[in-house]
Design brief:
- The complex is a heterodimer.
- In chain A, about 5% of the residues lie in helices and about 50% in strands.
- The longest helix of chain A has 7 residues, at about 95-100.
- Chain A starts with a strand and ends with a strand.
- In chain A, a hairpin with a 6-residue loop joins β4 and β5.
- By secondary structure, chain A is mainly β.
- The radius of gyration of chain A is 14 Å and the shape is globular.
- Chain B is mostly beta strands.
- In chain B, about 0% of the residues lie in helices and about 55% in strands.
- In chain B, the strands form 2 sheets. In chain B, strands 2, 4, 5, 9, 10 and 11 form a 6-stranded mixed sheet that branches. Chain B has a 5-stranded antiparallel sheet with strand order 1-3-8-7-6, with no helix packed on it.
- In chain B, a hairpin with a 5-residue loop joins β4 and β5.
- The chains are: A mainly beta, B mainly beta.
Chain lengths: ~120, ~110
């Protein structure tokens, strides 16, 4: 059973460019969240998608946007990249019933390491 | 704004010793999660604590939650090298349960030396 998969694993971009990161949730999971983890810090919540809509959002600017597809996979888009956007981007998934009924923990992918130069 | 503070942020200890990591949070919550992260790896769920007084144990790790004190502890008993990792606590204050966005602490970087 494949867990949460993310692509690409590493990415190097230049300031001002745009980037798209991709995530496939664990089988059976319908809710996808994105987190940004700067070096030496804890993950910070960006947003969450459920039923193809953004359900919750953290304190991130509009340059960060996302999408969820009918198969529950998701994309994170970042426009006008800044040096400070360099981080590990983690995708996490959970099944909505387990998450909201039993407080099941999130399952995280291995992340995409984004470097902005 | 919810704040989650862990201490210590860095801990070096010897095998066989006991130690406790503390996680304080600023807003009432009855859902707290502990995760482990190995270098270059993703986060692995360790414990989900859902009520005041909750205590869970897995091997040499035991986690507890005091919602009145807004404090969770992760206790390590007779540490072994394999437990070397970064440990994060995370809190959720929204009503939707574990599927909601979490606020993480900065993590405790634990090194266990032979």
């Amino acid at each position: 059973d494949a867990g949460v998969t993310q692509s690409p694993t590493h990415l190097i971009k230049t300031r001002g460019q745009q980037v798209t990161l991709r995530c496939s949730p664990k089988s059976g999971h319908d809710t996808v969240s994105w987190y940004q983890q700067a070096l030496g810090q804890g993950p910070q919540f960006i947003f969450q998608y459920y039923e193809e809509e953004e359900r919750q959002r953290g304190n991130f600017p509009d340059r960060f946007s996302g999408h969820q597809f009918p198969n529950y996979s998701s994309e994170l888009n970042v426009n006008a990249l800044l040096l400070g956007d360099s981080a590990l981007y983690l995708c996490a998934s959970v099944d909505s019933y387990g998450g909201w009924t039993y407080n099941s923990p999130l399952h995280f992918g291995n992340g995409t390491r984004l470097t902005v130069t | 704004e919810l704040k989650v503070e862990q201490n210590p942020l860095f801990l070096s200890m010897q095998e066989g010793k006991n130690y406790t990591i503390y996680c304080n949070y600023s807003t009432t919550s009855d859902r707290l999660y502990w995760y482990r992260q190995d270098p270059g790896k993703s986060l692995e769920s360790l414990f989900v604590l859902l009520s005041n007084g909750a205590v869970k144990q897995e091997g040499r790790l035991m986690a507890s939650l005091d919602t009145k004190a807004r404090l969770s502890t992760l206790h390590i008993t007779a540490a072994v090298h394999d437990l070397s990792a970064t440990y994060f606590c995370a809190v959720d204050i929204r009503s939707g349960g574990g599927a909601d966005g979490l606020t993480f602490g900065k993590g405790t970087h634990l090194i266990i030396q032979p």
